[in-house]
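Before relying on records like the one below, remember that each one covers exactly one chain. Contacts with other chains, cofactors or solvent are not represented anywhere in the record.
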Amino acid sequence: MPLYNLMEDAATAEICRAQLWQWLRFGAPLADGRRFTRDLFDELFDDELSALIKVPKIVRAARLFQDMVTAEEFEEFLTLPAYQLL
């Protein structure tokens, strides 16, 4: 169901989150030879979030995304817990 006409944004977030979760679980190799690890994810995530820290709603959404990417079990849909933040 579209929310505020942003269905495409939700779909993009779902795809990105699922890919990152899989990369993290399997230590995906990167083009520069490194493996995608929790430490690397946290470092990259914090770098990106630091540019957005002044927007509280974005920070909450980013933390939800981070929690779902690093969870042991794959949550079926990002949008279900995201609706709780609205």
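The chain has a mean pLDDT of 84.
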